[in-house]
């Protein structure tokens, strides 16, 4: 198994940092491995703590009386130099419950209100996003959206368009547009759903 022998923090930014790891591979060879992380210091890296606390949260929500539209954001992302379709999402503040972060971020990005569906941990627990380059983990929150889309609550650094997409529009988006992977897989689920798209979410059974 690969071993980490030393970690050097290369940057000290608020939202994202770069760390250089000195590692030794199973064949004994040594090399460097660079990791991008939400961690503020090397001691906070998941490779050190081995805790999977959520860095962020993504929200899969449906809209309308028939629950036949999914709430998406079309957001400009600098790494792409282009727009990409995503679920509303954001960072979880220290000490903040993931569901509270979801309600807050959802309203900030869309102007809509989110009614959270309580769900079993297996549906919501943080999952790693791109493990080859980052230790970032994001949880998923599910819910029903209401209200009128409004972008006046977004930050000046954000460029977000709220999209209420039915199945026809979702098919077009998946065929023609840039889509974040985590969002794309759930949109494929949305396309195949019958009735309430969120009907698969279950509460944990009491024992």
UniProtKB/TrEMBL annotation:
Entry similarity comment: Belongs to the Nudix hydrolase family.
GO molecular function terms listed in the Swiss-Prot or TrEMBL record: hydrolase activity
Taxonomic source organism: Coprococcus intestinihominis
Lineage of the source organism? Bacteria, Bacillati, Bacillota, Clostridia, Lachnospirales
Instruction: Read off the Pfam families from this record.
Output: NUDIX
| Cofactor(s) named in the record | Mg(2+)
Q: Note the CDD domains from the entry.
A: NUDIX_ADPRase_Nudt5_UGPPase_Nudt14
What domain of life does the UniProt record list for this protein's source?
A: Bacteria
This protein is called NUDIX hydrolase
Keywords noted in UniProt: Hydrolase
């Amino acid at each position: 198994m690969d071993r980490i022998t030393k970690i050097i923090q290369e940057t000290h930014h608020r939202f994202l940092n770069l760390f250089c790891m000195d590692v030794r591979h199973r064949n004994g060879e040594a090399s460097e491995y660079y990791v991008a992380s939400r961690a503020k210091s090397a001691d906070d890296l998941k490779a050190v703590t081995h805790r999977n606390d959520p860095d962020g949260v993504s929200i899969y929500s449906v809209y309308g009386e028939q629950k036949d539209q999914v709430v998406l954001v079309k957001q400009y992302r600098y790494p792409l130099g282009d727009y990409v379709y995503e679920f509303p999402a954001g960072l979880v503040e220290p000490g903040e419950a993931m569901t509270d972060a979801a309600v807050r971020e959802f309203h900030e990005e869309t102007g809509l209100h989110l009614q959270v569906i309580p769900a079993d941990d297996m549906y919501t627990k943080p999952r790693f996003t791109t493990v080859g380059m980052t230790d970032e983990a994001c949880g998923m929150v599910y819910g029903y959206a209401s209200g009128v889309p409004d972008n006046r609550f977004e930050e000046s650094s954000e460029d977000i368009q709220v999209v209420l997409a039915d199945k026809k529009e979702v098919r077009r988006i998946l065929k023609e547009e840039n889509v974040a992977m985590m969002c794309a897989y759930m949109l494929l689920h949305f396309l195949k759903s019958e009735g309430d798209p969120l009907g698969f979410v279950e509460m944990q059974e009491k024992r």
